[in-house]
Prior knowledge:
The structure is a single chain. This protein is an alpha+beta fold. 31% of the residues lie in helices and 25% in strands. The protein has helices spanning 12-23, 39-43, 70-75, 78-87, 107-119, 171-178, 197-203, 236-242, 261-271, 277-281, 287-298, 308-318, 375-388; strands at 2-8, 28-31, 50-53, 61-62, 92-94, 99-102, 123-125, 130-136, 139-144, 147-156, 183-189, 193-194, 210-217, 220-228, 232-234, 251-254, 321-323, 327-328, 336-341, 359-361, 369-370. Strands 1, 2, 7, 8, 9, 10 and 20 form a seven-stranded mixed beta sheet that branches. Helix 1 (12-23) packs parallel to helix 5 (107-119), helix 1 packs parallel to helix 13 and helix 9 packs across helix 12 (308-318). The structure holds flavin-adenine dinucleotide.
Amino acid sequence: MKTDVLIIGAGAAGLMCAITAGQRGRRVLVLDHANKPGKKILMSGGGRCNFTNLGVTPANYLSANPHFAKSALARYAPADFVALVEKHRIAYHEKELGQLFCDDSSKQIVRMLLDECAAAGVRIETGCAVERVRHREGGFSVATGRGELHAGALVVASGGLSIPSMGATGFGYELARQFGHEVRPTRAGLVPLTLSGKHQERYADLAGVALPAEARSGRQSFRSGLLFTHRGVSGPAILQISSYWQPGEELRLDLLPDRDAAAWLPAQRTARPAAELKTVLADLLPKRLAQRLCELDFGNRPMRQYREPELSTIGARLHDWPLVASGTEGYRTAEVTLGGVDTDGLSSSTMQSKLVPGLYFIGEVVDVTGWLGGYNFQWAWASGHAAGEVV
Ligand SMILES: Cc1cc2nc3c(=O)[nH]c(=O)nc-3n(C[C@H](O)[C@H](O)[C@H](O)COP(=O)(O)OP(=O)(O)OC[C@H]3O[C@@H](n4cnc5c(N)ncnc54)[C@H](O)[C@@H]3O)c2cc1C
């Protein structure tokens, strides 16, 4: 069987690329080994798909080349995807910080993409595994479970390694290497962090405790929710910082990001001299955490017994609490995969390989990873669109 464009992966990037190329009159076939398209879209955003972010900038992405994403992101903006969502009359809302979610269900986004594919004449084959790819004169021959296919252009949109149970494989990386591309080391991103040994024992019984906090690693910081879990820490602030944190590095937490604790504590001592420190701290922190901090570090005496320098040390500590993480929960729960196909080998305007004409890499398989909050889908749409315009 022959087609103009063969896309491997019916996820966010592959479907957007298929729509764009199909609308240009190209014959497009999308293959996926999973039993249905868009599985990650379905599970995204807690079932409501955080499909873009109004504040997208290249600075919201991690890549060995921070300039690579600029061109594609500039040419397919959040407003372009919002226009598509509105055309399909899908109700949506802004949750916070520019994050757009469906009011009802992620299923609507998948339905929209499939309807657009159908209108553009795109064929989608699910449950179809790709066994081998060869480059030949004028295109590619692809051996699949359903026979041999020939295509003028091949687009690899097979995603990263996160959530293997949803069909994630390292296929795209292997294909990239087969064609001489460098693949930058991969690791789990947007993922809960684990604690071990005495560090875990200190917090394990706080599982379920949540608070607003700022998580810092190196020069990067994120202010959002923090959640203690049985195995470590999670919540948006931790997921975000996990993409920047490297094993062995220390994390610092600001547990009172909206207060000046060094000023607040002396004021509390004046106002409530007989109150114990843990009771005072519990005004601003979850009670169990306030108690644990006192046990671990601050002691717990009536406020009048704390001298000024001691209170200022405690205040500073509340804004700079050290946390020693041992690792991450890994690909099993990670939202994304950091690293991937090295952008040096790709054109930033078309996503085409600089080594093999007609070969393209788009979406998460590329070494471009977004923050939490709709940035990863926007990269999938934008890179898929960039390739779809030329493929
Ligand atoms: C739980 C969860 C929630 C998320 N929520 C959000 C969110 O709300 N907002 C956001 O922006 N991002 C979110 N993300 C990240 C986002 O889902 C991904 O960044 C995005 O789906 C990447 O798109 P993609 O098309 O590159 O890859 P994918 O969507 O992963 O698609 C790749 C496709 O390729 C197929 N495939 C893989 N290997 C093969 C093979 N060998 N042969 C054939 N097919 C193959 C897979 O089955 C899959 O369908 C979330 C991720 C997870 C795991």
